[in-house]
Amino acid sequence: MASSQNQNPSPNFHDYLPLMAHKLGGDGLIGELCNGFNLLMDSEKGVITFDSLKRNSALLGLQDLSDDDLRCMLKEGDFDCDGALNQMEFCVLMFRLSPELMEESRFLLEEALLQELKDFSY
Where's the EF-hand domain (predicted)? Predict the structure, then answer.
């Protein structure tokens, strides 16, 4: 029986995604995210399920997450509400969990839109 003491309401998480993005570039980062997905997925189903996440989370240093933390993670990224994460949902979730990378992406999008507006006005 799990007690509330075993749950980790605020896991110690360091966001390495921006560093990886700078070192690997866009294609390299996506490749690494795909590798992470492959480590966590249920190989028979081709998606990350609660059981596969629980079984394989220690491979990514997430062994201290409670069952509730894992369920919340799945729910947060499960856009099609099938109870699992496909590769696209996993990659989107990883970006959403990285505030620094999201801010940088927002900045780059704004710059691109402004450039489009400039180009369009000529």
Answer: 65-100
